[in-house]
Design goal:
five-stranded parallel β-sheet, 10 strands, single chain, 64% helix, 5% strand, flat, mainly alpha, 954 residues
């Protein structure tokens, strides 16, 4: 679009002014987003081209792209072209992004790999990181035309870019037609409306502006008859231009004395009553060779090379030069750097739609075969095969067999469709059938649905298959059982597998390792240990890291549950070293890192826990694993426990997809933070969400956060007995493992039970805390036992021990609660001065957290004992200005002021890029500024003209 001849813009004053303002803003560092809508030919491209020329002149980096209907099935097809992501790029940022988008490939052939995750999610994140880095170098303008044809992943990424534009020097502009209507486009419109973006709809030009446009194009004032003829264009600028060109081609225009009029002689073009008719007339004026070449070009995507066109036509590139020059001269094609494209999308559409189906099929198949032979990217070949899938022959399946793994990485949904079709077409005796079925099962394991993956895997078991394939399919079934919590199915699959003579020794050892883990989770500790030891021995004997890794995972879980945290960590580290970076063991690596975070945090090795969590999050983001959202929830748990509640909320906002039990975890954390901040309506909304009141037996640890939130809601409503009953579920076997990881929940039950005059429950909670400390004498468990005993026995010394631990371990939410309990005990003993000091410290902790309910509850509890909160309770964090920023936001603001990009800030602060993005949005809102530059100029504490980090450097 840049560098091409600009057509005149007639009218559109309001729209031009809006675009000029947006360009001026982005050049000054203030981003924005705009959607331009209108019928084909109404002037969207022309309006946009003028704005992009101004952006280029203002020093912005301008990147443009165009969507194409054929590419709608290929994820991120427009975004990779738009951002110019190529492995051989001279720009190291783009080359790095291209490398990150690639995934390790196996040797050519039909394979079955159980890689974790969705590659499209990972690719999207890598492209967003690239945009962040480009914006760090200067203002960036991204413009995409014909968004109505964009693939779903590109539209989702476009929405995220629009959201990010409020905090980056980024202008995001898209054009689209009103049809076809798509829910994804409506979601984009809603996003724009709710987040300060802009949208305009271009109407038909009024008659006076049509005359003005015709005068410019025809170089003369149109006469009455020509004016009347132009009314058929219905105010559409492209129609006006094409109609004038059609009239000129047949000699139907006369020019004299600065006026242009219909000629008395010349061909009658009144049959051209629609824009498509006029375009078809232009195409009909070309030679037969040129028309044939252009029909082939209409199948090749938005841009193509002469070599691509030669492959589609089936001739040499040299023989096409004449017809390409003819098409360029006729205004049908135009240059796009070293490639070609149609001057307007309608030209391509008219050619495509006018082509008879048999001819179109022949062109597509020939082009696909030629591109296959030339080694073209798999997505371009798939793009041509999909429309003719019903007529596919054996050569397509041979190509698919050799390229399925690459296609799975690039376009998994397309790969699934091709494989499903191949499965339907294959003969029952086709020797490729088991392999094809297994490959499709592996693909569904990767992207869902899991029930279809399981169905296909069981089909393979009924077919003739080799030892390796049988082992992989059995492994897939056990892995599905582990992922869905059906541990009994894992054991049953093992029994069936050992009875199958086709199962090889390596797969036997691997399956046994999963059985060991499943038996531990089923509570069959003894049988689990036996299976673990046998699997570990067999795995080492065979030199198989998978069997060894899963057996060591089971061993570390057992040691942890028996209070041997040092041993669990040692075995965990050994497992991580054994499995290395095998891409098929990403899922296991993420599980091991998750367990490592829990163990390290449990023994207060906080920095190491944070580093392990960052490793897990980075790995999950890179591969797009299904465990990414689970890793984010685990991050949020840590942030909650260490008082970083805004970080927790930011991370939870990133979560897009979770298994049912982990969805409860997220709801519980959101509800608990909302309740402690006095946001009761929000808390109730999370508790009332589907499944929010149903805490599953044996669920993930954070499911018990739902108990905490429900108990607080009952306490707030003055229903103390109900609050105690809800939280007393912690004493049941269901939550024994949870309490082992979170013994600090028990003092809350003691406090509530004492307030409700239920001393037996308070005593039971204190006993459970002592027993947990005896089983696992970790500092955290010992502090919880002292805290419970201090409350029960009114012993301030024990409470002080717990307080010292929570202060040292940086667990501010528990520190505030323990200080409140100490203040109550001190006040009841008559030591009001000490009680007031403890209460004031608690209020300071809660002010930083924004814990409004804790402040109000404690004030009501301590007021009868002679303590008043004074002015401290009213001084929670303000809503705007520097003092409104949380500690993390202040760190982020300092780094923004230094000019760091979001990915660089994320690496510095051990956060995810999206979490930083959320923080920057909050910073802009709280500081009431519109750009990162303004943050750099204004993020300072009252009374200082220099940002804190800058002052430190001086």
């Amino acid at each position: 679009m840049l560098g091409q001849q600009l057509h005149p813009v007639i009218g559109r004053d309001t729209e031009r002014a809006l675009l000029e303002r947006l360009v001026t803003d982005v050049a000054a560092g203030r981003g924005g987003s705009l959607l331009i809508e209108g019928e084909p030919g109404i002037g969207k491209s022309t309006l946009l081209a003028h704005a992009l020329a101004k952006a280029d002149a203002a020093g912005c980096e301008v990147l443009t792209g165009q969507c194409d209907e054929l590419g709608r099935r290929l994820p991120l097809s427009i975004m990779t072209r738009l951002l110019e992501v190529e492995a051989g790029s001279a720009d190291p940022r783009r080359a790095e992004a291209a490398l990150a988008l690639e995934q390790p490939q196996e040797a050519p052939g039909w394979t079955m790999r159980l890689l974790a995750g969705d590659p499209v999610v990972a690719a999207t994140e890598q492209l967003l990181v690239l945009v962040d880095r480009l914006c760090a170098s200067g203002p960036l303008v991204l413009a995409v035309e014909d968004l109505q044809w964009a693939d779903d992943a590109s539209l989702l990424m476009w929405r995220r870019l629009c959201r990010a534009s409020v905090q980056l020097p980024l202008l995001v502009v898209g054009t689209c037609r009103p049809a076809p209507a798509r829910p994804e486009l409506e979601a984009l419109r809603r996003d724009l409306r709710s987040r300060g973006g802009q949208s305009v709809s271009l109407d038909q030009l009024p008659e006076a502006q049509v005359a003005e446009l015709a005068g410019v194009l025809a170089r003369g004032v149109p006469g009455p008859m020509l004016t009347e003829r132009l009314r058929s264009a219905a105010g559409n600028p492209l129609y006006v231009r094409e109609l004038l060109d059609a009239l000129a081609r047949v000699g139907a225009l006369d020019s004299a004395d600065g006026r242009v009029e219909l000629a008395a002689t010349g061909r009658d073009v009144r049959e051209l009553n629609a824009l498509t008719d006029v375009i078809a007339d232009r195409l009909a004026s070309l030679s037969a060779d040129a028309q044939e070449a252009l029909r082939a070009a209409s199948l090749l995507g938005p841009e193509f090379s002469v070599t691509d066109l030669a492959a589609a036509v089936g001739s040499g590139a040299g023989s096409l030069l004449r017809v390409v020059e003819e098409a360029l001269g006729a205004g049908v094609l135009e240059s796009a750097g070293s490639r070609l494209r149609f001057r307007h999308g309608l030209l391509k559409e008219v050619l495509y739609e006018a082509m008879p189906t048999p001819l179109r099929t022949a062109f597509l198949r020939r082009a696909a075969q030629e591109l296959m032979a030339s080694g073209a990217p798999v997505e371009r070949v798939a793009e041509l095969i999909l429309p003719v899938l019903g007529t596919a022959e054996d050569w397509e399946w041979e190509w698919l067999a050799g390229n399925v793994e690459r296609l799975v990485v690039r376009a998994p949904v397309v790969a699934a469709e091709l494989l499903e079709h191949a499965l339907r077409q294959a003969r029952a005796d086709d020797p490729r059938l088991p392999l094809l079925t297994a490959q499709l099962a592996a693909l569904y394991f990767r992207m869902g649905p899991l029930d279809r993956a399981e169905e296909l895997a069981r089909t393979v078991l009924r077919q003739a298959a080799d030892y390796e394939l049988i082992g992989r399919v059995r492994w897939l079934l056990s892995t599905i059982g582990m992922r869905t919590g059906r541990y009994g199915d894992v054991v049953e699959n093992w029994r069936a597998a050992t009875a199958d003579p086709r199962l090889g020794p390596v797969w036997r050892a691997r399956l046994l390792a999963l059985v060991a883990l499943a038996r531990h989770l089923l509570g069959q500790i003894g049988r689990g240990r036996l299976a673990m030891a046998e699997a570990l021995e067999e795995g080492r004997k065979l030199g198989d890291p998978t069997a060894v890794g899963y057996a060591l995972l089971a061993a570390s879980v057992v040691r942890s549950r028996h209070g041997d945290q040092a041993g669990a960590l040692a075995v965990n580290g050994q497992a991580l070293a054994e499995i290395g970076n095998d891409p098929e063991l990403v899922d296991l690596r993420l599980i091991l890192l998750g367990h490592r975070v829990i163990e390290l945090d449990g023994v207060d090795r906080l920095q190491e826990a944070e580093e392990a969590l960052v490793q897990a999050r980075t790995l999950a983001e890179r591969v797009g694993a299904t465990r990414l959202s689970m890793t984010l929830v685990q991050s949020a748990e840590r942030y909650y426990e260490h008082g970083r509640w805004d970080d927790a909320l930011a991370v939870l906002d990133e979560v897009t997809d979770l298994p049912p039990l982990w969805r409860l975890s997220r709801q519980g954390l959101l509800a608990l933070i909302g309740a402690r901040r006095g946001q009761w309506q929000e808390a109730a909304g999370h508790l009332d969400a589907p499944g929010g009141r149903k805490v599953p037996s044996g669920g993930p640890v954070a499911a018990a956060y739902l108990l905490m939130a429900r108990s607080l809601v009952a306490e707030h409503a003055s229903r103390l007995p109900e609050a105690v009953t809800v939280l007393a579920e912690l004493l049941t076997d269901t939550y024994a493992h949870d309490v082992g990881n979170h013994p600090e929940w028990l003092p809350a039950l003691v406090r509530l039970a004492l307030a409700a005059d239920d001393r037996p429950t308070a005593s039971a909670a204190a006993l459970a805390a002592r027993q947990e400390a005896g089983r696992q004498p970790k500092p955290r468990a010992l502090a919880a036992a002292d805290w419970c005993s201090g409350l029960l026995d009114q012993d301030p010394a024990r409470l002080l021990v717990a307080i010292d631990y929570h202060r040292t371990a940086d667990r501010s939410p528990d520190l505030g609660n323990a200080l409140e309990d100490l203040a109550a005990v001190q006040a009841e003993s008559g030591d009001l001065d000490a009680a007031r000091a403890s209460f004031d410290e608690a209020l300071a902790v809660w002010a930083e957290l924004g814990a409004d309910w804790d402040v109000r509850r404690a004030a009501a509890r301590l007021r009868p004992l002679g303590l008043r909160s004074g002015s401290r309770g009213a001084h929670l964090r303000p809503s705007s200005g520097w003092e409104a920023l949380t500690a993390t936001e202040r760190h982020v603001a300092d780094l923004v002021a230094q000019g760091l990009s979001n990915p660089d800030i994320a690496a510095r602060l051990l956060l995810s890029r999206r979490t930083v993005e959320t923080h920057v949005s909050h910073i802009l809102t709280k500081l009431q500024v519109r750009s990162r530059r303004e943050v750099g100029a204004g993020t300072h504490r009252p009374g200082s003209g220099t940002p804190p980090r800058a002052a430190e450097r001086e």
